[in-house]
Design goal:
mainly alpha, 89 residues, 3 helices
């Protein structure tokens, strides 16, 4: 993902401030939804498949932050690719 971003200047390598802000905002919203889901007993974690490092709860592993970042980064890059392809920007 980073190599594509670097080569084609999609998000973080073209608009670093905007990409950082948008990623931080969306990650915060998704993390809030995770916390609500954990508190309502909707989400749980099988501890056999995570690193064992948790933040605040045994159902919020540290890998969740990496997953949310990659989800936001991927979506942002796909958006930039589609925008260039169909809007010729």
């Amino acid at each position: 993902m980073t190599l594509l971003d670097y080569k084609y200047k999609l998000s973080f390598f073209k608009y670093p401030r905007a990409a950082f802000k948008s990623t931080l905002i969306v990650m915060s919203l998704l993390l809030f939804a995770d916390i609500v889901g954990i508190n309502w007993k909707i989400f749980s974690t099988n501890t056999r498949y995570v690193s064992g490092l948790f933040i605040g709860s045994e159902n919020l592993p540290i890998e969740e932050f990496f997953f949310l970042f990659m989800l936001c980064y991927f979506t942002l890059n796909i958006y930039q690719i589609l925008k260039r392809k169909y809007l010729d920007v």
